[in-house]
Amino acid sequence: MGTLAVLVFAWLSIQQVDDEHALTWEGQVTDRYNAAVTNIGEDPPEVRLGGIYALQRIMRDSPRDQPSIVNVLSTYIRNHAKKPKQAIDALKRKPTSDVQAALTALGSRNPVHDGTARVDLHGANLSGADLSGAYLHGADLSDANLIVADLSGADLSDANLSKANLSVANLSVADLSVADLRRADLPGAYLPDADLRDAILFAADLRDADLSGADLRGADLRNARR
């Protein structure tokens, strides 16, 4: 009986230590999260950049915080990547370092931990952005400016790209299956070997787009300009 009591006491002691470690860890993550969110609201760009990198690390360290971080970074990008007043400026601009860092963090996350969160970049000015290989399945990119953006190899399946400007964008080998591209601007877009199965391209502008090797099975091309 004495031996059993010792074992039970030892097990309870270990459990208590584990619980204390878990609480300490959760507190540390919460402090890191609050500090990072505060930093991305600061003026110096290097402080904002540090906050974004911190949020990216938290997504790796604490998967349960990923949904809220996806929402925070999406909102940050929409607020800091607004469309230029003149269309010609879009060809000359690339995302600032903090916006590009936020895009990279979103595009490289592990989607298994997204929960119900989704990337929402509707209306954002992402001209010249590097989103190559990014995971953007189901993302909202409607009315976004993606002129000359690099989306090669990106997963854009089931994404909303309606009315998006993808002029001269690189979409080679991109997965655009079941994507909504209705009324999207794609003149001069580079789409070789892209997966466009069951994509909606109704009234899309495909003039001078390179569709060599693209899979268009089941795609809706009604009223598309080619």
What does this protein look like?
- Mean pLDDT is about 90; it is low at about 5-10.
- The radius of gyration is 22 Å and the shape is elongated.
- The protein folds into two domains: about 1-115; about 120-225, 3 Solenoid (Pectate Lyase C-like), CATH 2.160.20.80.
- About 40% of the residues are buried.
- The chain is built from four helices and no strands.
- By secondary structure, the protein is mostly helical.
- Helix 2 packs parallel to helix 4 (about 95-105).
- It has helices spanning about 1-40, 45-60, 65-80, 95-105.
- The protein is about 35% helix and about 0% strand.
- The N and C termini lie far apart (about 85 Å).
- This is Pentapeptide repeat-containing protein.
- InterPro entries: 5peptide_repeat, Pentapeptide-BTB/POZ_domain.
Question: What's a quick, concise take on this entry?
Answer:
InterPro entries: 5peptide_repeat, Pentapeptide-BTB/POZ_domain. By secondary structure, this protein is mostly helical.
Low-confidence stretches: 6-10
Q: Tell me about the biggest sheet?
A: none
What's the pLDDT, averaged over the residues?
A: 88
Number of domains: 2
- In what range is the share of β-strand residues? under 5%
Pfam family, one: Pentapeptide
Protein name: Pentapeptide repeat-containing protein
